[in-house]
Each structure stands twice: as structure tokens, then as C-alpha cells.
Amino acid sequence: MRLRISFFILLLFILTAGTAQESEKNPKVQDWWKSSQFFMPYKSESAKKLPLISVSGNKFVNANGDTILFRGLAISDPDKLADQGHWNKKHFEKIKEMGAMLVRIPIHPAAWRQRTPREYIKLLEQAVEWCSEMEMYIIIDWHSIGNLGMEVFQNPMYNTTKTETYNFWKTIAWHFRGHNTIAFYELFNEPALGQGRFGSMSWTEWKEINEKMIHLIRAYDRKVIPLVAGFDWAYDLTPLHFEPIGAEGIGYVTHPYPMKRKPPWPDKWEENFGFAAGQYPIIATEIGFGLREGEVIDENHYGPIIINYLESKGISWMAWVFDPEWHPHMFESWDTYKLTAPGEFFKKAMHGGAQK
After folding, report:
1. Mean predicted confidence (pLDDT) in 37-43
2. Is 103 contained in some domain?
């Protein structure tokens, strides 16, 4: 009997010690009130260094009313870059050398959760300071793919919820409000139904979700520009013919990759998204291409055709992606930053050079 009592005392000690250790490692186990994720607004001397960007009719304009056509690029997720040791000012200096006016920062829901919002915000603050110094604007992009309405997504890295998405924008809008360098919030990267593989959602439902996000953001920041994407992996804006988003001062997004439609492309682009540029400001926040062996970039290639089309319509654009591992990559190696052929093409285009 005495042995049995001693055994239970020992077992109780082990369990209690384990609970204490877990509480020490994770204060949320008991002291949940100490784990507040409340963020104060970001105070920065660079907040007004760049002119405020706003919407006027179907254009993006600066404080003087001058029309701005943005040329830029997307980086890879800051969490990835930080984990690999490449989140630094040098990386942004290389982006500046490319001629970028606008930097798109994709934030994957999985990375936001894993790093934690408090630690992720620190990375974004660094990006804001580097971009302010180099006079480049920023798009913050909630980088999910799939059906936010039903919360069915293309890949686990994109898994999120409407609640998490709303709280993400609440956090970002509150923390960075009034900082002119962050010109745009891309509300959801690529809405997609996948011909039913990600469930169903009507445009009316998607419109309502976006309007809720915009309303929430503007409770904190009325000057930042929300960007709304259409279906078909952010390609199709045809619903704007009959049911545009019920909000002023916003822009729309398209991702007209070459595989979206068969060439010749321009007539199809006009039908699917280009028509909307006559009434709304649009950014093609992702364009890009790889090259097959022996393929050349000439006047008949997607590269010059898409740039010429977008700029003829007054549509701003951003190349995907400035990373040697994600595809289609724009440079070959972290050691050299040697550009690929598409990288060289987009560098020339960002500097306003001939598109062939």
C-alpha cells in the first residue's frame, strides 16, 4: 500500500511539474490576459516622406494630382526571406536597382500565424523604412488562394478564415495608418473556385466580403487604397459590368499570366479586364513568364505584348517574382543576384525602356 501511495505521489509530482513547465513556456496556458496582441500605431519620421497616393476617377494620383502609372515587382514572403538570412537592406537596394516604383509584399496566412503577428509586424516596419528611404511605395498583400467564402483553399499554406482575414487587416490598418509609403492593401491575393474544387461562391457574396474588409480598414485608415481581385485566380473582372464594389477610392487587381488565355491575347484581355480601365484604376499585381529552351523575347512574345497593352490602357503592373527559388524567378542566385532573361526584360521595362 505504501508503495502504491508513493507511486501516485510521484506521478502527481511529474504531472504538476509538466504543467508548470508548459505554463512557463506558454503563458497562454494560465495567464491568458498577459498575451495581448494589441498594437500601437507605428510612429515613424518617414511617414510623410513620400507623397500620398489617392484615387481620382480611373487613375492613381499624387498630392499634386499627377497621374502615376506604377511599375514594380513582388518579393517573396518576408518570413521566408528572414528564415533564409536574406531579409536585409541590400535586398531592397537590389529591388531599387531594378527600377521598381512599387514593392508588393506577400504575407501567407501560415507565415503570419507561425511567426506571430507581433514578430511579423517587426519585419514589415523594416520594409517600410527601407522603402521610404529608397522612395518606393508598398502593397501589403494577404497572400491566400482559394474560396474565402467557404474557407476552402488551394494549399495548406493559404488556409485562413474570414475572422483571421478581418483581424489581419484590422491589425495592419491600425498599426500603419497614416504612413504614406504603404499606398495599397491587396485584400486577398487570388480568389478562385477551381471549377468547383474549392466550393462555390457568387460574385455578390465575394463583393460583400470585400466591402466588409474595406469598411473595417477605413475605420482605422481612410486614405490607404484597398485593392479588390476578381475570380479565376484574380484574372476576371467582368462582373464589374453589372456589380462593382460599393466603395469609392479603391482599385482593382488582375493577374494576366500568359496561360490564362490562348494567344492572340489583347482582344481577350480587353474583354476580361481591360474594359474596366476606362472607369476604375487597375493594377496587374502579378505578371510574369519563364522561358523554354530556345525561346526568345521578341515583339511577338508575351512580355512586350502584355507591357505594351497594360501601359496603353493606363494599367499599372508588377512582375512576379524577385526570388531565385520561387517561379518564374527573376534572378538566379542569392550569391550573385544575376538576373534571368525575364529579370533582364522586366528591369528594362521598369526603367521605361523599349519592350522588346
Report:
1. 81
2. yes
Query: For residue 294, how many other CB atoms are within 10 A of its CB?
Result: 5
| Structural domain includes residue 1 | no
3-class DSSP state of 155: coil
Q: How confident is the model at residue 14 (pLDDT cuts 50, 70, 90)?
A: very low
Non-local CB neighbours of 263 within 8 Å, separated by 6+ positions: 302
What does the pLDDT read at residue 334? 98
Any idea what DSSP says for residue 339?
B
SS3 at position 276: helix
Burial environment of residue 338 by CB neighbours within 10 A (0 to 12, 13 to 18, 19 or more): exposed
Q: Which domain does 196 fall in, by range?
A: 53-350
277 inside domain: yes
Rounded Cα gap, residues 97 and 207, in angstroms: 38
Note whether 210 and 245 are within 8 A (CB).
Answer: yes
CB contact at 8 A, 187 and 16:
no
How many domains are there within the chain?
1
What was the pLDDT predicted at 353?
74
Using one digit for the tens of pLDDT, what is the confidence trace for 278-298?
999 999 999 999 999 999 999
Residue percentage of the chain with pLDDT more than 90: 87
* Residue 12, in any domain of the structure: no
Q: Residue 162's domain is classified under what CATH number?
A: 3.20.20.80
Residue 258 pLDDT: 98
Diameter over CA atoms, the chain: 91
